[in-house]
Design a protein that fits this description.
Two copies of one chain form a homodimer. Chain A has 238 residues and is an alpha+beta fold. In chain A, 38% of the residues lie in helices and 23% in strands. The first copy, chain A, binds a DNA duplex (30 and 30 nucleotides) through helix 8.
Chain lengths: 238, 238
Amino acid sequence: MCAFPSAVNCFAPDGCADWAELDPSEVTVLERKQYRRIYRRGETIFHQADEPQGIYCIETGYVLLWCMDAFGNETALGLRTPGESMGYRSLFAEEPHAATARALTDCRVRLIPRKIVEQLFDAHPALPRRFLRTLARDHGPPEALLLRGQHLPLRVRLANLLLILKEPCAVVHPDGRLVFELPLARHDLAAMVGVRPESVGRALKELEDKDLITFRRQRVTVPSIDRLLDVAGLDELP
Amino acid sequence: MCAFPSAVNCFAPDGCADWAELDPSEVTVLERKQYRRIYRRGETIFHQADEPQGIYCIETGYVLLWCMDAFGNETALGLRTPGESMGYRSLFAEEPHAATARALTDCRVRLIPRKIVEQLFDAHPALPRRFLRTLARDHGPPEALLLRGQHLPLRVRLANLLLILKEPCAVVHPDGRLVFELPLARHDLAAMVGVRPESVGRALKELEDKDLITFRRQRVTVPSIDRLLDVAGLDELP
DNA sequence: CGTACCGTTGAGGTGAGTCAAAGTAAGTGG
DNA sequence: CCACTTACTTTGACTCACCTCAACGGTACG
């Protein structure tokens, strides 16, 4: 369904940047550990309220981080793509997981157990500094506001979501068209922008009526990215 | 207007926990630096899009972190109280400030310049670990959802906001009543829960009609915290 | 005592929620 | 390959919480 991006070795210097400080010998040691696992589409990798086990690194596949509040509403906190880490926030906060990680596609994931993380952090002062940066950048206020701010019309938030999903999920065709193979269903898109799936459908149709996108299920085509940027940035009144 | 909490020495072991790892000699050095400054109510301490200068530590007063989007909407990201640090997220992210810090009351603030931060981090591996924890805990997903999730009725979000503001802004009277001296005006309360000031007024009135609170300007009295907890947690239908 | 700011009130508009039903694609087994 | 099941998506009607704008009232401050 969703074109798989090439596999990533989390520990290679060109892989997940978070571990780029390690030297080859340690990488070998890490890779020998038996913590690699395959998750099928829909499977849960870790669960909200569970105690953090370590840091998860995605080698292949897409993962959605989402959480549920006391009223049963699901909110998506972000999409994780190959090469990215997850589960570190709760580990560092010394708190239970605030989110559930669900495999959107079949995934290959490595877990670096907390003890190993501790050892590596002690041995390489640059590593905690690196994660300080990763943590400070992730789910940054700007993105959260763009997607979840209820001041902004839904179509603007969806346009922004598409622009954010561009890097991991879209390919640029020779003719300039942008084609997304979204790993997210309506339900998940809705959870990302904080509305109901029906509203996402209507808003997408609204964008389609303006010839900004065309879509069919999970495949979205954007004929001109510039026009989408206009909607996302500053929306001209109809 | 707002009862001042006692002053805090950011570097004392009992002060701001973020710096608790430093030993007394270094604390003295830090304190000798001329980076303490007084900000008047309403003054800006640092501004969205500015380059981060270092880590700010509040000794006295309240500070509101807020940001403005492309459409001119203001969103409050959090309240900082004496003993807390701020400005570190953008410093670690190596990005311009995502938020503006405005003094809600007169404030005494210390700035630890980035160079000193670097030196301290190199000398004390425990310091970056400490900030890893602080960063991972701050503006955590749970709180943001509680306050800004548009699924929840406004009165629920406001009740949650009051409960969050309880620790820094409320005193428990002998008879069990809880009395808040909010440093936040309607406008700021509105920015915290993501609605307009008028809606905050109406929602507060709604809570007052149910005898959950009484308020007059910035002073809010809660006769029974348990009943407020009920509203915040699981709202019974009228 | 006047001014400026903040807060309140009211009327009217609207974007998104809700619920229920119909439509469509993907997956399964014969 | 087709019939069947199941899950996802779309559509429509209705409701409501919050927004908008404008006018008014209070409080603080000079």
